[in-house]
Model the fold of this input.
Amino acid sequence: SDVYKRQGINAEYMGENNNYKVHQEMELTLFAINDGYVEAIIRGLRAGFLTPDVYEALKGTNSLQDFKTVLEDTDYGPYLGSEIQNVSISVLRQRLKRKLADEFQYIQVQSVEPLATFLRLMQSQYMIDNIVNIIEGVKNRVDFDYLLSQADPLGIFPELKAIKSVDPENYSELYSTVLIDTPIGQYFMKFLENVMEALNENISINEIQALFRDIQPEFIRTSLKKMWLEDFYEFCQELNPITKDFMGDILKFEADCKTIQVIYNSIGNKELSSAANRSSKRKQLCPSLGYLYPDVDKDIANVTSIEGLREAVRHIQQYREMLRDVPDPLKREEFSADVRGLDDLMYEEEVRKYSLAFEEQAHYAVFYAYMKLKEQEIRNVIWLAEMVARKLPRSNKGWNKILIPFQN
Done:
């Protein structure tokens, strides 16, 4: 079958080993028994994605109130009721994310192992974002209740409120008081251990505390997500062959994107591109998996220019084409609204991969793909809402800077 061909299984081997066929059929049967219902739900939810006609209607609105009215005729309608008097982009974003979080929670309630663990691992990335965003906000003296209200509903967990009583710059206390029993506690502990290992033995307590205070929240976010991605990948390797295949490809691509982003964003950054830090600091941020790993790990870690980055990934056509026309981070004049940035190109390929996950049956990648495609849809809606709020003319190329799931 096409499934076996895609898995790289030799047809002759299949003919001689009927036991393998039987094993595969048993796995599919077990999947149908344990996960068939929730898979049917997630595939049914696909019908709720906004169509190109809805996007055109959103582009034709003249105010956020009109924009909201268009969305009320979609599956988002129940979350955009008449109680919303003053429509704002912030409110729209939270309501759209609330709908996605409610769908996710319903799927979680219906799931059994190993899908339940798969979903918990999916959720961990949003928990990391919430923790880092709140830490950053508190350090900048933003009201805690406001920060909590803006947290991603997908990453809400009970211990999040306890951060209010902890010094956000005391990461050790934050771990022992708030995060120790949470799904992301293990990543935070490993992050603290990695930082401590890099310190000089003779450093004082005051110097240690000062060091932690100086750590940028984005460095924490990227480090934690690196660990999460590696953990998630390892878990997926133990799942059924179709899930392992799809999720392996998706997560390897995401890992490569994170590595390329780290190197791209560090070009010209004295702290990350200096000879002393190129190996150690970048290693903490770049995942130890992907199509670039480990073959070009050393080459890409020592990159100091956009030309060097292009050269390091030249053997993978997809990445070579992706980096061919991206602006040089050292030349700000190359950046403009008309130029697609690195993130735009990565999102485009991710949407394609997530959409393809729905073409195969009996695997967990559809749950991950649905979440990611819905996030892209929310990005689309918020982007258009901002265009409407700014009253930009339809001739502005920004109106077309969206990626519609299952259409691109």
Notes: The mean pLDDT is 88.
